[in-house]
Design brief:
Length: about 450
């Protein structure tokens, strides 16, 4: 909290204005009920959710959330890449809006809160502010980004990256899932399902961006904190490695004559785990997906495709290990050919000190124990930080578990995060005249 506290103490000219402001209280019961209702879409037997990007389940989630938004007077819209926007109009529609949200898609065996909590707490804040009577100089837009998880279509964060100009629409539309279905095919189906939604351009000026998320780690729970003031995000690189050998008869071809793609993978995996995975105590190295062709018991594998997820807080380490990955794969390929495609390259980043200050002040105002914390997982805020002052609010999750059916957040913690988010958004919408925008104004 030291950074947040020092920032607040450096702004005494704002303190009187903020202390005099009335902060509307969110409806914790309504928020929790909506989270549980949303979790029924794609519900799994053991309490989790399977609602992957652009599946019928995600379209059903759109219908539900759009219904809630329209009932509160919010205006739904979308864009060419399938991001969903729900806008509470402000007095001056020409001002850059404040965005808040996360994503609605899940892992195949995901939980109820990853992504969904960020969208629904932002929606709850917007609904609360709509009913509060507070002045709003600018729009507040709740966003649900396309394909944050990357479980069905790789890489993840497609919607926010396209919005920020980091990846072209054509490149995204060309990506396919394991069944060969393209993003473009399912995007066209999504837009045909919601023909009445206005279509916004891909990317528009922002005033600020704030995203709430479960921590997906154990630190807040261990420290007894309810609000995490996210200082930044560790960097991430993802690779798709393709090994091409030659198929052959398992009973007739001599070992020395084989171009066995799976054998090449085995050599690579051992060296990658030892050299890259063992680089230092904070490295995160994962081989998460493996496809073997033709995947038949009596056929020598002719092709292997596997994924690498590499994360580290220091960009120089990420760059060094990326080169080692390429070198290890080339050296271990043997008689096979290998191609290492870099699918995503997201350097570590820092968030807005002024927004961190506001989050810390909101936590103090309501008596929520808080602390600064680094995000070890990737989030859409990574891309928004390039466009406008951005920040994240973390809330605890039980045992730090996420991307699993047992993922859980306490109702009181969800409510606390939503209240802190609503406070910050009320300030950013210029409900109190004269409070400067973070870092001197929207960009």
């Amino acid at each position: 909290m030291a950074a947040a506290r020092s920032a607040r103490h450096s702004r005494p000219d704002h303190a009187d204005e903020l202390s005099a402001m009335t902060y509307p209280l969110i409806d914790a019961g309504r928020l929790w009920d909506r989270l549980m209702e949303l979790a029924q879409i794609g519900a799994l037997p053991h309490g989790g959710v399977d609602r992957q990007a652009l599946t019928p389940g995600e379209l059903d989630a759109w219908r539900l959330v759009i219904g809630w938004a329209r009932a509160a007077g919010l205006e739904p819209s979308t864009d060419p890449v399938g991001n969903l926007f729900l806008t509470l109009p402000g007095a001056d529609r020409s001002l850059p809006p404040v965005l808040a949200g996360s994503h609605l898609d899940t892992q195949p065996t995901g939980g109820k809160f990853d992504g969904a909590a960020g969208v629904l707490t932002a929606l709850e804040a917007a609904v609360t502010l709509a009913a509060s009577g507070l002045s709003r100089a600018r729009d507040l837009t709740v966003v649900a980004w396309l394909n944050e998880e990357g479980s069905r279509f790789a890489p993840g964060m497609m919607g926010s990256e396209a919005f920020a100009g980091g990846r072209t629409l054509d490149a995204i539309r060309a990506r396919t899932d394991p069944a060969g279905i393209s993003v473009g095919t399912d995007l066209d189906r999504l837009h045909a399902t919601f023909p009445d939604l206005p279509r916004r351009p891909l990317g528009f000026p922002l005033g600020a961006y704030v995203e709430l998320h479960i921590e997906q780690g154990p630190i807040l729970e261990a420290e007894g904190k309810v609000i995490g003031i996210v200082t930044g995000m560790q960097g991430k690189k993802t690779f798709q490695i393709t090994i091409t050998g030659a198929e052959g008869h398992a009973g007739t071809l001599a070992m020395a004559e084989r171009h066995d793609a799976l054998a090449a993978f085995s050599r690579m995996a051992v060296e990658l785990y030892e050299t890259v995975g063992g680089h230092d105590p904070v490295i995160k190295f994962t081989i998460g997906r493996l496809r073997v062709e033709p995947n038949a018991p009596s056929v020598i594998p002719g092709k292997v495709v596997f994924s690498i997820d590499l994360r580290h807080p220091e960009n120089t380490v990420l760059d060094l290990l990326a080169e080692r990955i390429r070198a290890i794969c080339a050296a271990a390929a043997g008689p096979c050919e290998v191609v290492a495609d870099l699918l995503a390259d997201a350097p570590s980043n820092s968030f807005s000190p002024a927004l961190m200050d506001r989050i810390g002040a909101a936590a103090d105002r309501h008596g929520f124990p808080s602390m600064p914390i680094l995000s070890f997982a990737g989030h859409d805020a990574r891309h928004m930080e390039k466009l406008a002052p951005s920040a994240m609010i973390f809330i605890p999750c039980r045992d730090g578990v996420s991307h699993a059916e047992s993922e859980w957040a306490e109702p009181a913690h969800v409510a606390a995060g939503a209240q802190a988010l609503a406070d910050v958004l009320a300030e950013l919408l210029d409900a109190v005249p004269g409070i400067p925008f973070p870092e001197g104004g929207p960009r």
